[in-house]
Amino acid sequence: xxxxxxxxANTVETRQYRKAAKALLVLIPLFGITxxxxxxxxxxxxxxxxxxxxVRALLxxxxxxxxxxxxxxxxxxxxxxxxxxxxxxxxxxxxxxxxSRR
Length: 102
What we know:
Blueprint: H1 2-8, H2 12-39, H3 47-73, H4 76-101
C-alpha cells in the first residue's frame, strides 16, 4: 500500500526523494565495500600484504573518480550545460572570425 501511494504521488518533492534514494543506494556500496575490504586486510608482511596494499590504494583512490563520473560527468544537467557553453563559445568564436575576415 505504501509503495502504491508513493508511486501515485508524483510531486517535485517525491522526485527529489527518489533521486536521493537512488544516489544513496549507489554510494553505500561504493564506499562501504571499499572500507570493509580495508578493515579485513592481512596483518603479516609479505607478498600478499603488498598486493593488498596496492589493491586498497587503487580502491580508495578511485572512489572520488567514480563519484564524479556518475554524479558530474554522466549527469544530464551537467552535460546539457556544457553543450550550451561550448555552443555559445563556438558561436562567439565564429562571429569574431567572420568579423576579422571582413
